[in-house]
Protein 1
Amino acid sequence: MENPRKDGIPPYRAAVVHGGPGAQGGMADAAIKLADFCGVIEPLQTECSANGEIEELHNLIKNGGEPPVVLIGHSWGAWLSLLTAARYPETVSKLILVASAPFEDHYAAAIHKRRIERLSSKEKIEFSSLLQSLTASRSGEDKLLSKRLHKLFLKSDFYETGAEGEDYGNNIEMNSRVFNAVWSKAAELRSSGALLKTASVLKCPVLAIHGDHDPHPAEGVELPLKRVIKDFRFILLEKCGHYPWLEKHASEKFYEILRTEIL
C-alpha cells in the first residue's frame, strides 16, 4: 500500500487527512480533485493510538510532502490535523478543518440524535443492532459490520449526494480496530478540555468549513475555537452535510474555497 498516496505534480504543498478514525481512503476523491491545481498527498492513518497517529501523520508529511503544507483534515482528521499542527508547527502553513467533530462535550450529545432522526423505522432498528453486534463481534466479523454501519451513517450525514458520492462507502477501507483504539482517547481529550487547550497554542491560520446539515453541530466547532484561536475563520456551507466535496449543492463552492486557500 502506497502511503502517503500522491496526486498531481510536485511540489506537494497540500495534504488531506481522512476521518474515522480508521476510514482509510476517505478523502481520496478530494485529493484527486485538488490535484487539478496543486500537488497533494493523502496520508493514511494506521496507528492504534491518538499519539501514534500524530507521530505517523507528521512523519508522512515530512517524508512524502514538502512542508510546511496546507493541512486539510476531515471529521476526526480535523482533530488529528489540529493536534499535529500544534505539536509540529513547522510542518503546517495553514490548517483547514472540514466537518470537524465538536470541541466540547455538551455539543456532542446532539450528533447521535440527529442521525437517528434521519433514518427510517427499519433503519433505526438495524442501526441499534449493528452497534450492539460490533461491541460483541469477533475480528472476522467487524469489517463487514463496520461497512454496513457506515452506510447508515452516510445516509443520515448527506444533505443530497452528488454523483461522485453514490459509491463513496464502497471506496473506503474501514478499520474498526483503529477506530476503537483511537476514539476512546480522542473523546477523553475533548472531555478533559485538553483538545481545546491544544487548539489555543496553534501558530498557523485556521479555517473551519462546515455544512448546515451536518449532524455535528456547527456551533460546537465555531464558538469554542473562536474563543481560543486568534487567527480563526469559519465558513458555513448551505445545503451541505458531513462530506462537502460529495454534496450536490455544495461541492463546487467547497473546492472554490480550497483553491483560494491553497494557492
Protein 2
Amino acid sequence: MSSFITQIRRDLADHRGTVFWTPMIIAMVMAALVIVAAIVGRLDLGMFSKEIYLNQTGTMSVNGIDNLRVVLGEGNRLLFDDGTGAKPFHAYLDAEKRSQMETVYALVTGLLAVPIALLAMITLPFAMSSTLYEERKDRSILFWKSMPVSDLTAVGSRMISLPLGTLFWAFVAGFTLHVLLFLVGLTIVVGNGFLPGLSLGMIGALGQVWLVIGLAALIYLLWALPVYAWFLLVSAAAPKAPFIIAVAPFVLIPLFGVLIDLPSGIMSDPLYRLIGAYVVAPLDRMDDVLDQGVMEELTALLGALAQSFADWQLWAGVAVAAALVFAASEVRRRRTL
C-alpha cells in the first residue's frame, strides 16, 4: 500500500503542470480580470447590469413585478418606482421571490467557473496518453523497473492519480473562483438594492450548486474511465505519437459506422463518454432551475444525476477500464523501451 501511495505522489509530481498549475493559473487569470473589472467599475453581471435598466423607456417588468420605473438614487444606486415611491428592488420581493433570485444568482456565478472543468477535460487525455510513453522515451522506466514496484501498481496509480488529481484541483480552483465571483458580484447586487444582503438561503444555494458540480464531476469520471484506460494502454504500446493513435479510433470508428449504416450511438459511445455527453443529459434540468429558481429544482437536479449510478452501461465501462488497465500493465511488463 505504501508503494502505491508513493507511486501516486510521484505521478502527481511528474504531472504537476497538468494536474495543479493549469487549473490554478486559469482561475487566477479569471479572478484578476474580475477584480480589475470591479475596480474600474465596468463589471457587467448580465441581469444585474445597471445599463440594462437605465436604457429602458417607460415602465418595465422585473422578475414578474410589473409597472416599475427605474431611477437613480443617491450614490448612483438603482431604485424602482411602482407609483408609490422609489424603493430598492428587494422591497418588492416576498420570501419566495427572494429565494428564487438567490438560487439563480448562486447558479449563474457558479457556471462562470465551468471553463476550468472544461480545460481539465481537454488537458487530461494528453497527460494520460503521454505518461507511459514518456518514461520509455527518456528511459526512466529502467530505473522504475529496478524498484520493487509491480507494473500493475505503476499503471494503476496513474489511472487514479491523473484523473482524480486533475479533477480535484480543477474543483478546488473552480470553487475558489466561484466564491470570489459570488462575493464581488454580491457587492453590486446588494449595492443596487436587488437583494438585502447575504443570507442563509443564499449560502444554502451555493452549497447545493457545488453538490451538483461535484456529483457531475464524479459521474463524468466514471463514464470516462474506459476511455482514459484506453489512453494508458496506447501510451504503454505506441512507438510514437501516442495521442494521435489513441484519438484516431474516435474519428474512424464512427465514420466506419456511418459507411456500413450501424447505429451512431453505439459507434460513438467512447467519444460521448470522453466529452461528457452522458452527464449533460441529466443537466438539462438546469433550465428549470434558471426559469423557476427554487431549491426544489436543484434537489431534483441532484436526483437526476444520481440516477446515473443505476445505469448498467456506466458500470460496464468501469469493468472495461479495469481490463484495459491490466492490459496496459502487461504491455509495460513486456516492453521496456
